[in-house]
Fold:
Amino acid sequence: MKTSKKDTRLRRSRSFRAKNRRLDIPRLCVHKTPRHMYAQIIVGDISDKTVVSASTLVDSIIGKVKYTGNVEAAGVLGEEIARLALAAGIKRVAFDRSGHKYHGRVKALADKAREAGLEF
Structure:
């Protein structure tokens, strides 16, 4: 039976999350759709708990970008999530890209979050 792109992506995602549970550090989880991106920092060993979240639906991000589904918007989202995380006292995270390739919007979000002070 042939596996689909989605099945392959979900397999990669499960692999990372299993490894991250052993590391026991907060993870910066990214979800993307063609129109928006969502980022959240999840802390937890047994029960996952979202500490900080941001998305391209937030008014502070919508006001800075023309379109929310491109690299520019992902960069602004990276800066915003880093600012919120540092305010919450989280400086070091693991980058959970949910099985997506480290390319385009995912890379832009990660690069801007690093520039803003997050370590991963």
